[in-house]
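Saturday, quiet lab. Running sequence design on the structure tokens for the scaffold JK sent over.
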């Protein structure tokens, strides 16, 4: 089913992503940003998206998780999502309701060996639910309005490596922006 795969090796990507995440975490710690002790978790195969209810592992594209100061209504685990769109929508709604997000993680397509495939005329990336596939939002650049869609249709595609962002935009179009600058209007423009 895969049309093609990225040729770079996963260990090199993980090393580069780890270095980028460590540098970003150090800067965020100095600036009083997100809690550096929070780490992403793997998402269970049967976990439903906390925003839309779809089974996360059953759908293509970006996967996300948000760790909140309180553990409700998620019951002691981070909120987990089938797309970047669901991740941001849920977080924005939770913030509006007075909840405090401590860390947001999204799939880092610079850290995984993703598969690209066509389905029904749409271009999609594989999803990755293992903890090492995630990077902090603060370390990521997302591409909006590309040809690649996710579980909920048009989505944000995140990368920690600027070279990967440039390659992706050259091949699939879209506009790059820091993941921390995503707003409701960004989602509405997808």
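Result came back. Writing it out in full:
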């Amino acid at each position: 089913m895969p049309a093609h795969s990225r040729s770079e090796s996963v260990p090199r990507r993980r090393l580069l992503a780890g270095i980028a995440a460590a540098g970003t975490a150090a800067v965020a710690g100095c600036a009083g940003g997100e809690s550096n002790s929070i780490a992403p978790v793997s998402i269970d195969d049967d976990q439903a998206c906390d925003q839309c209810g779809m089974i996360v592992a059953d759908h293509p594209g970006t996967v996300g998780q948000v760790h909140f100061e309180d553990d409700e209504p998620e019951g002691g685990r981070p909120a987990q999502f089938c797309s970047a769109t669901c991740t941001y929508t849920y977080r924005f709604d939770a913030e509006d309701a007075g909840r405090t997000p401590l860390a947001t993680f999204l799939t880092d397509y610079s850290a995984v060996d993703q598969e690209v495939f066509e389905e029904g005329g749409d271009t999609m990336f594989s999803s990755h639910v293992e903890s090492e596939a995630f990077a902090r939002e603060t370390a990521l650049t997302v591409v909006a309005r590309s040809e690649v869609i996710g579980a909920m249709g048009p989505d944000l595609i995140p990368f920690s490596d600027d070279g990967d962002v440039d390659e992706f935009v050259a091949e699939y179009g879209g506009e790059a922006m820091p993941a921390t600058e995503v707003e409701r209007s960004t989602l509405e423009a997808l």
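Notes for JK: The chain has one domain: 4-188. The two ends are 27 Å apart (CA to CA). Ask whether to fix the surface positions before the next round.
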